[in-house]
Backbone:
């Protein structure tokens, strides 16, 4: 190789080595950037709060209750007073056997949904509280139409039924709103007794009927039955509470009160307290649903970050492979530059000898 050719080759290799070194620097810079991004993602993972499922214990509480005849009383608050007594609030619960309750509905038929008459089967619904009677006080079927139940009643029984229906009207209006109510009486085939079934006039008028006059939409129906009722007794003062050796409440003494609401001395009645635990299942279920939602969001966030980290790792792997290629190429260039350098030195030495 000639002197000029060797020098040109050496310059070309030097330029190539410089380019390789520059590309390597660029790759290292990219890997540093990727490393920083990966570190940020890992920091995000470390900073995330792991959702914790709710504990049923957090929604369970100890409840004290006492029985007063047919009344079940559940204590809601016991506030200790400086004089050693307690101010107690409790919820009183009992079963009312004469209450208006929902009943199974039946198909109602009418030829005039606005004005009636309305029928269930062969029985015509009668306006509650209106019983046509004859001079002797018995039921007047000529005016009211055939009614097996009313026809079976004596005059005194009709009077009693009229009073009952007045009470029915009060109950219905109190619970379901001011309106006209219709009634039919249904015989229990086992006991032979009749039970009333009530219909709200506005429900009958507002129902959908087919071409044959049969109701197509649900029509509410009510009857007389048992219903659990509650009443809250607030801040009963002057109560005394007894504990056992373990600190558990075992008895409560509630005084009678005068017209001013003050405790009457010596009038207290003592009741045994029953201890039980109650879990607020609805609140627990809500908390569990919230946990499931947060866990889903957490898992989604984890998956997204892991996917981004995997992409960064793949990119870094490619850059690492390219850097190894550049290292191999740089080693080859350095080896060749050393060889060319030796050729140049040899040519230079030969030239000086020629002219020496």
Residues:
């Amino acid at each position: 190789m000639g002197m000029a050719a060797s020098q040109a080759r050496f310059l070309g290799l030097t330029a190539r080595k410089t380019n390789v070194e520059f590309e390597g620097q660029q790759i290292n810079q990219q890997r540093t950037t990727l490393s920083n991004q990966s570190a940020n993602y890992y920091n995000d993972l470390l900073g995330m709060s792991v959702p914790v499922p709710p504990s049923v214990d957090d929604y369970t509480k100890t409840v004290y209750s006492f029985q007063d005849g047919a009344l079940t009383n559940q204590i809601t608050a016991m506030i200790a007073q400086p004089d050693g007594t307690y101010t107690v609030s409790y919820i009183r619960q009992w079963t009312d056997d004469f209450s208006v309750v929902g009943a199974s509905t039946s198909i109602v038929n009418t030829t005039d949904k606005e004005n009636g008459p309305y029928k269930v089967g062969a029985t015509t619904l009668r306006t509650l509280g209106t019983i046509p009677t004859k001079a002797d006080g018995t039921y007047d079927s000529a005016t009211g139409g055939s009614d097996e139940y009313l026809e079976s009643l004596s005059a005194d029984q009709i009077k009693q039924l009229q009073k009952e229906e007045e009470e029915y009207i009060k109950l219905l209006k109190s619970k379901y709103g001011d309106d006209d109510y219709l009634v039919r009486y249904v015989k229990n085939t086992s006991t032979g007794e009749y039970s009333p079934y009530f219909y709200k006039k506005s429900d009958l008028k507002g129902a959908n009927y087919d071409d044959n006059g049969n109701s197509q939409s649900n029509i509410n129906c009510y009857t007389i039955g048992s219903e659990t009722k509650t009443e809250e007794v607030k801040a009963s003062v002057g109560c005394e509470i007894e504990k056992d050796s373990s600190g558990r409440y075992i008895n409560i003494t509630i005084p009678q009160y005068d017209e001013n609401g003050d405790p009457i001395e010596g009038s207290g009645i003592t009741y045994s307290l029953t201890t039980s635990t109650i879990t607020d299942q609805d609140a627990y279920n809500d908390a569990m649903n919230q946990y499931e939602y947060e866990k889903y969001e957490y898992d989604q966030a984890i998956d997204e970050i892991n996917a981004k980290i995997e992409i960064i790792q793949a990119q870094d792997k490619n850059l690492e492979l390219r850097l190894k290629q550049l290292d191999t190429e740089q080693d080859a260039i350095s080896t060749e530059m050393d060889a060319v350098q030796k050729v140049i030195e040899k040519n230079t030495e030969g030239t000086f000898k020629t002219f020496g």
